Amino acid sequence: LRDTLLAAISAATAPDALDAVRVEALGKQGRITGLLKTLGGMTPDERQVQGPAIHALREAVTTAIAARKAALDAAVLNARLAAETLDMTLPVDLPATGTVHPVSQVMDELAEIFADLGFAVATGPEIETDWHNFSALNIPETHPARAMHDTFYLAGMPADGDERTVKRVLRTHTSPVQIRTMMDQPPPIRIIAPGRTYRSDSDATHTPMFHQVEGLVIDKGITLGHLKWTLETFLKAFFEREDIVLRLRPSYFPFTEPSAEIDVGYTLVKGKRVIGGSGDDENGGWLEVLGSGMVHPKVIAACGLDPAEWQGFAFGCGIDRLAMLKYGMDDLRAFFDGDIRWLKHYGFAS
Ligand code: PHE
């Protein structure tokens, strides 16, 4: 019996086969259990001989089963380890994560550059009153400049009431933040105001929603020289080049006097316009990047300040256009399509 059982134990190649042998030998109806039961019917002399023998048999079988079980468990574990190898050298498949949009990135860069020049960031509402967007900026109701702005007017506003609160528009530029800042805080003022602006216009270089950054300085003894130096310093830092050349072109805005459009020189490199160098050079040209001027005395007065005491300059600039120039993008509409392939192409998504 001992040999039969030990052979069965070593022949068991799976845990349940081994368990069947265990039941057969040591279970309630098992063969060794049966032998143990015969001890009671033996004479003391027989028991003296058979007892230790049967117990030794049980001991041997129990030990053999435990040993075989340990071996089988180890084999199962080894098989799993072999099957489930983990290659630690494989690249990790990271989940897709969001990145900063080029427009947000440029806004952050602007805030950083101007912070170094002592400018704070100011904000204003995108739903603006007609008064802040136009009238306070010296653009009265009948002014032809209004027609140039392709304004979105908001419906459902009462026809009468205070002009300053009643008629509402989606702001057509960030210039109303000039008004809000001058009315909110005493000079000296140095702010930029980046944000969304709206005009009813759409083609490769115009979207109904776009972004501008406004700049405003109000202090004593401010001149056009301060304006030029500030913009030159800003554009050098933004385009990361020292060879930035500016051209101030006389222009007209109702809220600045005198007014100047700022052109920046570019150089053609393999057919692409790269900011830098004089636009008058052989391979060069000029790109209009900013509107600017000395804040009109009427605007300063509309905000409750004395224009004889306070002067300043202001400028406004399209953020999306700045991003296009810096990163070499050519269709403004793609900025707002949310196409991950476009973002990846320009290195703004991974
Ligand atoms: N608000 C003007 C525009 O949208 C730009 C500008 C701002 C011009 C400030 C002069 C001063 O075109």
TrEMBL record:
GO terms for molecular function: ligase activity. Keywords: Aminoacyl-tRNA synthetase, ATP-binding, Cytoplasm, Ligase, Magnesium, Metal-binding, Nucleotide-binding, Protein biosynthesis. Its main location: cytoplasm. It catalyses: tRNA(Phe) + L-phenylalanine + ATP = L-phenylalanyl-tRNA(Phe) + AMP + diphosphate + H(+). Binds 2 magnesium ions per tetramer. Its cofactor is Mg(2+). It is found in: Cytoplasm. It is an enzyme of class 6 (ligase). The keyword ATP-binding applies. It comes from the Bacteria. The keyword Signal does not apply. Belongs to the class-II aminoacyl-tRNA synthetase family. Phe-tRNA synthetase alpha subunit type 1 subfamily. HAMAP family: Phe_tRNA_synth_alpha1. This is Phenylalanine--tRNA ligase alpha subunit.
